Structure formats: structure tokens, C-alpha cells
Amino acid sequence: MPEASAPLALVRMAGFLALAAAAFTVGVRMLRLWRQTGQLPELMLGSHILILIAGYALEFGGLLGQGALGEGGAWALRAAGNLCYAICILAYLLFNLRVFRPQSRVAALVTVVCAVSLAVGYAGELLTGRFELLPQRFALPWFWIAYAPRLVTMGWAAAEGLGHWGRMRRRARLGIESPLLAHRFLLWGLAAASELAIYFVAGAALLSATPTAFLVGLPALVISALGVAGAATIYLAFLPPPFYRRWVQSGSQA
Predict the structure, then answer these.
(1) C-beta separation of 52 from 30 below 8 A
(2) Quick check: 157 and 96 in contact, CB under 8 A?
(3) What is the pLDDT of residue 174?
(4) What is the residue range of 72's domain?
(5) In a domain, 182, yes or no
């Protein structure tokens, strides 16, 4: 894996830690809310966030710790990390379906197709590769079969969040909808758009001759910036401080 400059490594680490801290806080809060309400959306959203963090930790542990863990131990961590990615995307798919399109047959079909794609892609990688950041892995179809649902899921979430925000903002101006709730959909749509953009940047790097390119150079800076933006929007959507609430309320009355 190529070495990054010290400042770049610090920026990348800051982006990851900011995203992880905010996401972990929100994920725990959502699971606590699920325990109170027993509703599926809270469970799916909280699970997505926490399992995604676990996936990053496991995969990068397997990539960086091969010398200490041995080939078998490092492979097991990488395989577990990629399984976490599949599970967390499935959780988000169920969240999208339940919250935004519970009666839609098309949305249900999209969810099923993406779930099958996640399973097929992961199984293909499990049988044919070692989950390493090497060109030969990305020359095979299995990684991309499992990667495509990430783009579909986050694109769906971004479109729904921003679409709901547009409709609810008009209702909020008429005084028949909560401006805070409308703004939450804006923030959630932006958070999903940030994650979608990360997948596009990382995917473009993985298609290059050096798949680890997304860990260094300009792609690392872009991904870190998007991670920080996603962390900020997630935090403000679910844990808005009092001054931010006042700002949203005052803006709706202007």
C-alpha cells in the first residue's frame, strides 16, 4: 500500500475519525430510539451506520495488519469487513423501502435485486479472491456486482431526502409543517449524497492501474472532505444543538 505524506495522512485520518465519531453517536442514538419504539426504520438506520463503521475497521485492519495477523487472519478480517458492507447496504435498502416507498412494488423489486446482487457479488469474491486492493480483483465482475447496490442505495436515499425536503419546505413556509423536520430531510439527503460521492470517487480510483490511489493524493483529500461533510450533516440532522435549531426556525420565518 503506498505511503501518503504526513499532512495528507493527517487530513485523511481527521476525515475518517470525524465521520466515525458522528456516525457512531447517531447510530447508538437510533438503536436506543428503536428500543423505545420497536420500529423497523430506527433499527435499520442505526444498524447501517454501526455496521459500516465496523466494516471499515475490519477491512483496514486486515489490509494493514497482515504481518502481525498472518495471511489467514488478515484474509478473515477483510472478508468480515466486506460482509459488513453488504449487510449495512441491505439495512439501508430496507430503511429506504420502509420510510419512503412502503407501498411501491417497483421499490420492493429494486430492493430485492440489490439484495441478490450483494449476495452474489460477495459470494463470488469469497470463492475467487482474497479481498485485497489489487488490480486483478477489480478486473473480475464480483466486486462490482456487490458495489453497484451501494450507488443505487445512496442515490435513492439522496433523491428521496432532497425531494422530501423540497416538498416539506413549501409546507413549512405555509405553517403546516415543522421547519426542523423539513431541514432534517435536507441534511439527510446531503449526507446520502456525500456517501454516494465517496463511492464514485473510490470506484474511479479502483478502476485505475493503482487501486490504492484512493488512499493517497487528490482522491484521499476529496474523500476526507466528503467524509467530514457527511459527518457534519449526519450530526446536525439527528443531534442539532440549540443554536442550530434557532437558526433553522428563524430562517423559516424570514
Answers:
(1) no
(2) yes
(3) 75
(4) 8-241
(5) yes
